Amino acid sequence: MTTKIILDVDTGTDDAVALMVGALSPDIELVGATTVNGNTAVHNCTENTLRVFDWIGMPQVPVHEGMDRPMARAQMTQLNPAGRIHGDLLDLPPATTASVQPGHAVDWLIDTYLASAGDITLVPVGPLTNIAMAIQKAPAMLAKIPEIVIMGGAHDHGNSTASAEFNIWLDPEAARIVVNCGRPIRMVPLDATHRALVSLDDCRTLRGLGTPGGEAAARFVEKRIEGYGATQPMHRSNAAPVHDALAVCAVIDPTIITTQFIPVDVETDAELSVGRTVCDFRFRSGRPANVSFAMDADEPKFVRMLTEILGRTA
Ligand code: RIB
Ligand code: CA
After folding, report:
1. Atom of ligand 1 nearest to the CA of 10
2. 27 CA distance to ligand 2 centroid (A)?
3. Which CATH code is given to the segment(s) 3-310?
4. What global pTM score does this model have?
C-alpha cells in the first residue's frame, strides 16, 4: 500500500535527495511539490525542484511556487553555510521539460487538501511559511491532513543559532502556527538527522548504482560533506546529514526514527533563542503533548533505504 505525500521544499541539496526518494520509492505516491523561500530565493528553489524531476525522468510531478519571504518578520540574510552546503542552483542541467504550474502554492495546497479524501501526508522540509499561510487562509483544510511530518527543530543544539534549527529559525511565527495546529505531527529534528550521516564511502556506493538518482545524490552529498567540513564539522569526518531525506524515509518506515510524544512549542520573541523548538520532555508546562519528536535515527537503515530507492529509475 502506497502513502500519498506532498513535499514542501526549499530545494537545496538535501531537499533534492528527499524529492528523489519521494518520487522513486514504490511505497510513496508523490502528489506534488510546493516551493518556499529558505535555503535560497524561492525562484531558485523552484528551478532546482524542476531540475530534479527532469533529471530522474519525472517531469510530470506538479510543482507550485510559494512564499518568497517569512510571514511576519523581515527576510533573514541567507546563511553563509547555506551557500557552501546548497548553493543557489543545483549542479544539474537547467530544467527543460518540467515546468512550474500556474497558481500559488498556498492556494494549490488548500484546493488539493479540501478536494482530497484526507489521505495525503504533508511533508514540509523547509521553513513552514506556505503551510502556516494555507492554514490561516483555509482552516477547513486541517481536517483533511492525516499527518504532518516536519524536518525541522532541535532540542540539544541548533545550526542557525545556538538554540535554533534553520527551518524553524527562518520563520518562527509560521512554525508556531503549524506545531499548534492540532493535527498529528511527527518532527524530525537535528537530534535525529545528525545521527543518520551519509559518508563519502556511501557516495561511492550511490554513484556505483549507475542511476540518475544515485549519481545526483552522490553529487549533492559530496557537496554537503565539503560544506559541513568547512562550516559545521560533524562528530564524524567525511560524512554529512541529509536531513530532508530522513523525513521522507520516516514516512516509508516509521521505525527509522525514535520519537517521544511531548508538548513542543516555538519561541518567537526571546533574543537569544528565537526559533527554538521548546521540548517539554518532563511535562512541566502542564500542556498536552502535540508532537512526536525524534531524538534518534537508524543510520544503517537510512543508508540502506537511500541505496535501494535511488537505485530505481522512473
Ligand atoms: O536545518 C536543516 C534544514 O534547513 C534542511 O531542511 C535544509 O534543507 C535547510 O532547509
Ligand atoms: Ca530543506
Report:
1. 10
2. 22
3. 3.90.245.10
4. 0.98
